[in-house]
Structure formats: C-alpha cells, structure tokens
Amino acid sequence: MAKVSKKKVSRKSVRKSSTVTEKIAEVKPDVVYDDGDDEFLSKEDGNISSEEEEEEEDGKDGKDERKRQKLLEAISALGGKRQKKLGERSEAAVLMSEFTVNAEGEGDKIDLSDLIGSMEKTSAVPAKTKKQLKNLQHTNKTIECPLSKQESERIQRDVAFRKASTEVTRWKDIIKQNQRAEQLVFPLDKEPTGPRPMERMVTGWKAQTPLEQEIFALLSANKQPINDPILTPAEEASMRAMSLEEAKIRRAELQKARALQSYYEAKTRRERKIKSKKYHKVQNKAKRKEFLKKFEEMVKTDPAAALEELSKIELARMQERMSLKHQNSGKWAKSKVIMAKYDEGARKAMQQQLEVNKELTQKLVTSLNKEEEEEEAVDEEVLPDFVNDAEQRLDSSNPWMRGKLSEDPAEKELSENMDLITEGPGAVGNPAEEEEDEEEVVETEEETLLREFDSRRKWRQAHEEMEEKEPQVPEQEEEEGPQVPEQEEEEGPQVPEQEEEEGPQAPEQEEEEEPQVPEQEEEEEPQVPEQEEEEEPQVPEQEEEELSAIGEGIADSSGEAEMPEGAADSCHTNPSAQLEEGLLRIRTLEDMELLSQQEPAPDEAPAEPPATDKPPSVTPQADKTRKRKRGIELKEVLTKETKVIKVPLAPTIEDTEDTEDKLDQRGLIKEAFAGDDVVSDFLKDKRKQEDAAKPQVVDLTLPGWGEWGGTNLKPSRNKRRRFRIKTAPPPPRRDQCLPSIIVSEKRNSSISLHQVNSLPFPFQNHAQFESTIRAPLGRTWNTEQTVRKISKPKVVTQLGAIIEPMSREELMKDKKQVSTGSTSHVDSWKRKR
Amino acid sequence: MAATSEAVVNPAHVEKTKKAPARYWDEPQEGKDENKVGKDGEQTEETLPQKHVEKAKKRKNDEDRGDAKKFISGKPDPFPGPAHISKDRMQKFKRRDKTKKIPRQHYKLKDMMARSDEVSEMAQKQAARIDLLLPEDAGFLEGDEDEDTCTISQEDISDAVDITSASKYFDLKLSQFGPYRLDYSRTGRHLLLGGRRGHIACIDWQTKQLMCEINVMESINDVKWLHSEAMYAVAQKKWLYIYDSNGIELHCIRKFNDVLRMQFLPYHFLLATVSATSFLQYLDVSVGKEVAAINTKTGRLDVMCQNPQNAIVHLGHSNGTVTLWSPNQKEALVKMLCHQGAVRSVAVDKTGTYMVTSGMDKKLKVYDIRAFKPLKSYFLPAGASCLSLSQRGLLSAATGDIVQVYRDVWSTPVTKPYMAHRVQRTVWGMQFCPFEDVLGVGHGEGFTSMLIPGAGEPNFDGLDSNPYRSVKQRQEWEVKALLEKIHPELITLDPTELGQVDQATFQQKHQDRVQALGFDPLAKEKFIPRYKKKGRSSAGSIERRKRQVANEDLRETVQQSSEDKMKIEKERKEREKKEVLLSSKKSALDRFKK
Question: How far is A620 from chain B (nearest CA, A)?
C-alpha cells in the first residue's frame, strides 16, 4: 500500500504542472492498459489518467519532463521490486524527441492513407504495389501478433527437418542397394571389370597413319559412323539426350496434363450436381441436336460408324421400352395424377412425360433404315436365342447354369440331361449353339478346373470304396483258403484275431502247396517236411518261434535255387509281423531232420544248374493279392534267389593252405551247421539291442504308504498303477524294417563338436541352412570360375586409390541408369552366364 | 549390307514352317539384290531403296543394343546362347535340390538363398561342361560271335594289344617264400609284395624296377603302402613294422600286435589294422599316434575292407555277419547278417554304393550299402576266397586257383564271368591296379599281373593321384595332403552329416533357453480371442471363435496329410503298374488264377 500512496503523490505533483486536460479525454480510449495497478488507480478516481498520457502532454517542455522522469525512476527504484520502466511502452518517437523538432500531430496515430497520399503523384511506384497498398487500406483486419520465439523456432526446425529428411531419403535407395550388393568395388565410379564389348574397344583405337587420320577426319566431319555397327555421334547424342532438364520438362508437361484433367473432372462433377431441371433439359436438348447433326455428317462420311451409332440408339430405345421410365407410373407421376384434377401444371407435366416416352421409343428413320430393317428381321429370328445366350453369359461364373459340367464318362448321364436342357432353347437356331461353343472355349480354364475337382472327388470316392472293400478281402481269402494261395497278415491292432486264425491257416497252406508240387519241375523234398512242421501245436515261446520261422526260411532257401515259386510263397509271410504277433511254434525232431537234409542241398546245386531262369520279381499271381510289403524281410534277405554261376575253369586245387588247415576245419564245421545258430544268435542280439534301447518303466510305489504294509502284503494294483511312470517310446529304430541289420542308435558325439548347433540369424529352419551349406566350395570340387564367384570378397578396394564419399552426381547417375538401362543391363548379364 | 545379313538370320534358327512376317524393309533388300545382279540398273531405283536400307540399318542397330547378339562383322551367331548340356550329365553333378520358397522370408534370407541357389546351379553347370575335358575312354573286351569273353586267355590278349600293354601281363615266379599278398600304391605305379614266409619286395612294376627287396625272417600277414610310395607297413608275426622304400626299418609299433589285415585311409592318414585278438586299431601315420583301439569281441579278424567314400571299415566275421566300424564308436555302427557261414571276403566299390561279400556258404552277395538292402545273390561252385573291386566296378573273385572277373554284378544278373584265368596255386591276395587295366594276383607261386580291359579309371585326377608325378610333385602333394588331412572324428556313416544341424544339442539349448526365459520364444502363439463389445464376447462366442481357429489349424494338417497320402498312393500305383508290366510274361500257373 505504501507504494501506491507514493505514486499518488507523484501523480498529484504532475497534475499541478500539466494543464491540458481535453486531450486526455480524446486519447484515453485508444490506449490499452495492461497493468492491474494502473487499472486499480483509474478506478479509484476517474479523472486521474495514467502517467503515460501525461508524459505525452508534457513532452513540450523537455526539461521538466526530464526531471520528472528522473524523479519517477528514482521513486520506482525505491520500490526495488518493480524494475520495469513504464516509460518503455510509449511511442518511440516521444522518447527520442529530446533534441529533434516536434512535428505537428506527432503523437497522433499514423494512418496508412497519409502515407499513400504521395503515391498517386509519384510515377515510380509500380502498379502492382499500388494495388497491394490499396487493398491493404481496405482491409480492416488486425495483423496477427508474431509467434513466440519458441514456436517460430519449432516451426523452423520442423521445416528444416523435413527438408533434410527428403534430402537424405534420396540416398536411401542407393544405400540399400549397396548394402545388399554381393560385392562392392571401391572407388565406386570405376568401370566394371571383365570383358568389354568389342565396340568400345574399337572406339578406343586411334588412327595413326596420316591416311587413316585423314579418313577419320572426313568421317567425323560428316558425322558418319566410324565403325560399322556403332552409332553415329548424332545418334549417340540422342541416346544420351534424356538429361535431367529434359526429364524435368517432360514431368512438367505431364503435370500440366494431369492438372487439366482434374479441372475438367471437377467441372463435370459440378455440372452433374446441378439440380435445376431446366438446365439439364436445355443441355440435353442441345446435346441431342448436336448429336443428330454429327450423325447426319457421319452418315455421309463414315457409314460404318454411323451404323454403330444407330445400333446404339436402337439399344437405348430398347432399354427405354423395357424400363418404366417416363410412363407415369412412378411416385412422382402418381402424385401428379392426384393433383392433375386441379392443377393445370401437373397435367402438363404428365403430358410432357408421355411425350418424352414416345419420343424415346420412336424408331429412328434415317437413310440407313433399309439395312436396319434387314438387321431387325434377322434379329427377330435370332432374338430368343440371343436372350438366352445373354443370360448364360451372365451366369458364366455359375457352373450349374452351364451346359456341361465335365466330360467325364461316368457323369455322362448328367451331362446329357444338361445338354437336353440347353438344347431345348438352343434348338431354335444353330448359330446360337455355335456361339455357345465359342463361349466354352473361352471358359475352358474354369471348366478344366472344375473337371479336375470333380475327378478328384470321384477318385476319392472310389478310393473310399476300395478301402471299404479291402478289409473284406482277407476275410474272404481265409474262408476260401485253397483258392487264394496267400495268407494275408494284418499287423498291430488285429493281433489276437490273427493268432486265432493261425491254427486253421497252416493246413490250408499245405493244401495250396500240394497241388503245385507236381507242376514244379524240381524235387521238393525239403519243402514237404517243412509244411508238416507247421502243423505242430503252438507253444508260447518267442525265441523258439523265431527260430522255426527262420529255419523254415532256410529250408526254403536250400531248395530255392531250383524253385522260385516256393520262395515267392514263403516271402509273403512277413517275419517281422510274425515276430510281433507271436506266432508260436516248436522245433521238433523233424526240424532237425530238415537241417540235416539241408546240408546236401548246396552240394547238389552246382552239379545241377538251374533250369528256370526267372527274374527275381515275384509272380504276378502272388503280386495281385499280396499287400504292400514293408521294408525288407529277413527271409528274403537270407533266401534271396541265388544265381548259379558257371565257371569255365574248374578249380584244381582246394583253397586250403597247410597253415590254415585247422582254421578251415573249423570253417567246415561252421558250414555244416550253417543257418542254425548264426541266425538265431543274430536275432537274439538284435532283440537285446532293441530291448536295451527301450525306455524302462519306473516303479515308484512305496509299500506301506497310505495302506497297510507287511511281509505278505503287496501294494494294491491301483497304487502301483498310479506310481508307475512310463516314458514316451523312442523314435522308431532305423533297422525296424531291416530284419538282418542292426544299426547302432548310439549318438555320435565326436562329430557333434564340429556340427552347427544353432541356426544362424536369417535362417528359419534347418532345411534352409543345410541346403545353403550343402554344396562344396573348394577347388577340388568346383571349377576355378565357380570358386572365384563363391569366394568373392564383399568389398574390393583398389590399392592406393582414394575412396571418396559418394557425390550427388553419382546419385543422379544411378537414378538415370535405373530408369533407362536397368532392364537391358540385367538381361545381358543373365545371358552372359 | 545390313538387310542381307538380316535375311540370313531367319534360316539360321531352327526351321519354322511359317514364313517370317513380311516387313517393309524386306522388299528393298530384294530390290537391292537384283540391282547387284544387274549392275547397270537405273540410278533412281538405286537411290530409293538406299533410304530404306538405312532405316532398316538403324532398326537393326537398335536391336543390337537390345540383345547384343550380333557381331561387328554383321554375321549372326549360328549357335546363339550357351551350349546345351545334357540332362544326365547335369544330374551327375547335382549336389542339392532347389530350395522351396517360403512366403514372408526375411530379405536377407531371401537374398542368401537366391545367391546360393544361383551359385550351386552355376557350379553344377560348369562342372557338367568341364566334364567334356575327360578325354580318355575305358577299355573293353569283345569276343567274336558266339565266343565267350571268359574263354579268351591272357596270352591272346597280350598278343593282340600294343607292346606297352602287353608288357603289363607278366608272371613273377617266387615259389620259395610262399603265398604272396600285394598292394598297389594309390597312383598305381608301385607294387608291394609280401610273401608269407618273410619276403618283401617293392617294385616299380611298370618299369619292372626293383626298389628294395628284403626278408624279415618272420611270417608276414599283410603289407600296405602308406600315403605315398616312400613308406609301407608290414604286419609281421608279432608286431607291426614300418619300412621305407629302401627297406630300412623305420618303426616297430608294439602297440599293434598280431595284426592280420590292414587298410590305409588315405585322406585321414589312418592305418586301420585288425588283429587275431579281435582288436581294431587306428594309427595316425602323420603324427604316429594311436587314434582308437576297439575291442570288437568277435574273435579272430581276418576279413577287412574299407569304404572309400566314407572311410568306414568293414569287417567280416565267422558268424556270417559283416560289421561297419568308425574310430569314434566302441561298438559296430551296423551289423549285417550276410551269410549263413563265415564271411570270407568283403569289398566295397569306389562310390560307396555297393558291397560285395562272399562266404563259406559259397555264395556271393551284393548289397546296397547305403540302404543295407540285398541286391543280388550268386552261387559260386567253389566259393570265393578273395574279392576285389576295380575303379570301374569290375569284380574279381578267386576260387581256389582260378581268378574270375565279373562285370556289373549289381545291376544285371550275371551267369558267367567276364574273364577267367588260372594261376599256378591258390590265390592269396588280389587287387586291381588303379588307373590301369591290370589285376595283380598274389598266389603260392609268386605274382601274376593280368590284363583286364575296362578295369581302371581312364581319367586320373592329377592333383589327387597322378601316376606320372615327379618326386617334386610328390613332395608338394604330400604337403597339400597333410594340410587337407581330415580328422578322424569326422568319420561317419553318412559323410553329409557334418553339414547338418546338430539336432540334439539344438534342442537342449532351446530347452535351456525356454527355462531361462520362462516361455518358449519359438512356440506358436496361442490364440486369444479379441474382446468385442455389445455382448459379442460372451463365453459362448469366445469359445466358438477359439474352436473356429482350432478347426482351421486342424484342417490344414488334415489337408497336408491327405495330400501326402494321395501322393504315396499315386507312387504306389505307378510302381505296381511298372511291376505288372515287368512281370507280364505269362506263367504256366496263370490259368489257375481267378
């Protein structure tokens, strides 16, 4: 408060000195007060005006004024807080006016008209500025206050960023291209290495002898091609002609064209939006007139086009006739009908409508109408088909609406029906059918697709039927054993059935075999006992069974050199299946007999070479009924038909050395018992390995937990089941289908050290990665050229050459290349390889 | 000029029934030709077509720039484009299939795949092209009409062939020191003979120059050249010895006792030995270290061979099995039951595709060793004691004192040998000489070198094994070979395994990662239905949406599987058709078929 009071004092003193009051009132409304203090003051007493005004007045006597200013400053300095001088707000001229002469009306607001006044007189001012200034005079808008520094800076930054980013993005393409390039050669502007085209080499050649020089001077003076296929300099210049400027010009042209087009579009759009009916009426009329005029002309000059035009008109007429337009059946017309009783205008409007209709549906009578009549006559004849046809065309996408669905013989009936349907209307005129055919030709693609689809569907159906049948087949076979010399064996789920069936099957097999015996040329002694052996009762012990199965196979093999038929039959019993099903047999004395019989067999064999020379493939008979074999069968492996080889020279010396005598004896013994322990041992070994690889069932049951425990008490089955942990079965063994093979499943850890065990970055799966490193890189496997291509360094720099940053010209050059020569360049590059 | 040249262009291409389309510049060209014939034609006519010609020329130039096919001379290329390469030749050099394109690949991956595809294709093409540079053809033996080639005697052949070849048929009578084993060096120039009773001889057999001859005064089980002809290993009665080409004993290796047979793996510098104590041992001859000693637990081992493709050692056993071994595993990689009697000999062909075995059951069997499938089985009246396969796939089998050579035992069933020859006494060792049509046979009476036309590979790789190399070249090769030595850890059944990602470790790592992260980064995202307003996110509709997605996934898998099935079915049908065609010959039993 103290401050305010001080101010009051000062003001009072000022008033004393100042005398003029009228002017204050004048100026008062113009000045805007910012300070709350001032306002506060002015409220207190209305007559007191702000100090500024007073200052303005007091400017006349400068001395006083200055003193007063000083005083004021001193006072304000006393306050300490308020540093800002109020005087600063005033017009600059006032403050500056200390030593200058005061002009009249100096304190007044300057009007623009005052300044412009002289403009009329001076001729130097251009008309444009004059106009601008005049406009300025008329405008009453206040000028927007300038933006704050921060804002303007932000805008500037924005603009600058945009500019810079466009500048930078121009480099984006080339940078990307370089990043992805297979090889970069620095410095970049170097000519590409490799063989240069002949033309360029020739141009590099210089004329040396005076004669040559003279000739070349002549040629070049006349701008003639120096080398035969090379372009003339003029041509070359034209080749190079598409410079930046030209491109710019061209672009500008295009832009202009586009702009014009858009103007036109806008114009037409605007016109279309005009609702005035009268306007449209007038316009339409004008158009029609013009059209008629044109048409008349056209009849004279270009009758063909005129005819076309005519047909168009005809079509329009047809459309008009077909539609209900202008027939006074619309909503508007109905309302008019109601009004027509009272309103003359409505009646008239309706009349007009009808007239329009008449006019539109009227036939055009021109000089060409004769031809037209003829055409019409033809049209009338064809019309029904034509209509039909059009409909079909509409439905071309709908396969059901088309004549033929597919040409599959099985579906002929259907298609025939469809044909009948289509022929109904089509019978009227042949041309229509022809047309249809054409259409079909066009639509072959769709049809073929459909047909394919259909055939596939059918195939699937057939397949399903087959599958339904297939399970029936074995049953039938089992019933009619003697007819089908084959035992079908199903694996897996049907095991129990199979076991039951095994009993009756054995005699059946015998039955099959017996009629065949006389037909085979060779003796079959080993075969018969084997069959008998099969009849033996079955005892559940797997090892034994396997042995017998194998023994059987061996027995077969002994005779097999002579009789492939038997081999073929025995092949069908899948041993691996047998192993799993647990086909149970016992080895008996007869079996042993068999073994003993088997021995002489090989000895006899060389003496009696095979009479039949059949290929190893199975007889077609067996082939038909047999199911697919899975993998290789042990029996087949061991009893594969052997070819006896005739040797022209008989060995005179046994291959026995005295040192090896003992060994050979052992070998002889081995040979004697061949096929016995060898096979069984091997099978045992294999089974052992398989078992070892199988995951063990972990039993975690603890007796006595949750129930009674004791010496004779076993944990309940329920509990045992709950605590037995079964691990997932391992993946199938590699030798699953190879009975005579054991493949070790142990992991080779030594190579895993050298293998890649994580996929490198861009690869998504193993196959991709493996395929990329599949091909060898070295010189041993590749040609020199390939090796060089494979081991190309990513960046090549020339020794001693300065690598400068890319210049803008390069960018431009690159763009030009891309736009003009990229395709041809790529082509030629491709062809080179 | 230009116009005429253009006229030539058209007939140069493959003949077309259609005439070339008429061009406006064709006419003047004809006119010009006429003018040429009648030189004194009117000037006006001459000038008029000239303009046309110029135009045509310009056009031609444009074309030139377009395809750059024509030359300065103006003549067209009669054989445009790169030379054609036959399909089977391309197939021969195929290393891998083209990769399938997956949508939404990373651009880097796309680039990489495209580049590698391109490179491999280029490599394949160029290799196929350069295959042309293998100029030599293999020899063959052709009998007269109704004359078996196996009845042609060695004398006949040596009479018929040129002098140098004839000199390759010879006998060495060495009756004193018992049956001989032999080994040819990898280049085929040098021969190493080891007699049972201690006699060792190194011979440059083509010049018949004796390099050294010693008697070790001990029984010898086997002899083998090491990587070059400078050193060889001899399996003597007790230990394994290494001598140099002058007969100086370099090493006596006490770790290798009772060795019966040896094989040298040239690219690994490994000497594999099998002993009577059923040990299979590997010796790295470049550093002199024992790499592995495996107790095979199968008794006395005296049948051995190597697979030249993957350096796996095949052993034959007395229980009719053949086992495959690598130094990295203590148990057999594969165990095959091949014979009912003991296995007497095993041989594997150069490409590592076929294995031939012979056993006590007097059978000779051919296996596809890649799939372990039996291909052919033959019965030899006396059984084969020794087998050897030549570079071009000829098989020699010794039965007693007879040496038989068979051709193509794996593809076509053979009934009689290609060639046969009787030597003085029982055959003990046998080997085809590399790059020569020669079979060396060691027997009780010494050594016989036989001529077998078509046995050796006619084109040798000069960088790998050059029969004509000088000492300097040999030294250089040795250094290179040592630098390129393959580590014994890399011996696997499938040599391409090295190029595969180690799945087990990969999975292990992935599991660890999942554990560390708490979620599976590679797992497919679970579908979470979006929340929808206006009551459309009721429990029922959410469930329905979930099921929709699940069904879609299921549909995809089902479609995939059904497609696979169809494919398999189709293949099967085709195969059946083929089989039916093959076995369409009617048999007598067909009449009972119903």
Answer: 6
Taking CB atoms and an 8 Å cut-off, how many pairs form between chains A and B? 326
Residues B189 and B328 in one domain: yes
Which residue range is the domain that position B516 belongs to? 507-547
Same domain, B283 and B423: yes
- Tell whether B177 and B326 lie within a shared domain: yes
What does the alpha-carbon distance between residue B368 and residue B374 come to, in Å, rounded to a whole number?
A: 6
Report CA Rg, chain A: 56
Select from B379, B402, B576 the Cβ nearest to the Cβ of A642.
B379
Residue owning tokens 């076995």? B583
Cβ neighbours of B109 in A, within 8 Å: 762-764, 768
Same domain? For B173 and B303 the reply is yes
Gap from B66 CA to chain A (nearest CA, Å): 7
Interface membership of B382 toward A (CB under 8 Å): yes
Q: How far is CA A647 from CA A602, A652, B37, B397, B425, in A?
A: 16, 12, 78, 11, 17
Task: For residue A739, say if its preceding peptide bond is cis, omega within 30 degrees of 0.
Answer: no
Which CATH number does the domain housing residue B389 bear?
Answer: 2.130.10.10
Residue A601's closest chain B neighbor by CA? B361
Q: Does residue B453 sit in the same domain as residue B534?
A: no
Contact across the interface for B341 and A828, Cβ inside 8 Å: no
Q: Strand, helix or coil at A742?
A: strand
Total domains in the fold of chain B? 4
pLDDT tens string A623-648: 443 444 444 455 555 555 677 777 77
Considering only CB atoms, which chain A residues are within 8 Å of B402?
Answer: 647, 649-651
* Reported ipTM exceeds the 0.85 cut: no
Measured CA to CA in angstroms, residue A636 lies from A29, A69, A369, A632 at distances of 122, 128, 91, 7
**pLDDT per position as a tens digit, B212-256:** 999 999 999 999 999 999 999 999 999 999 999 999 999 999 999
* Contact between chains at B119 and A786 (C-beta distance less than 8 A): yes
Tokens of residue A249, six digits: 């010009």
Q: Has residue B590 been placed in a domain? A: no
B311 within 8 A of B338, measured Cβ to Cβ: no
Considering B76, B106, B133, which residue would you say is the last residue of a domain?
B133
Domain spans of chain A, in order of start: 2-109, 152-188+806-833, 274-367, 375-466, 470-648+671-693
Residue B179 Cα, gap to closest chain A Cα (Å)? 9
What is the rounded CA–CA span in Å between residue B362 and residue A674?
11
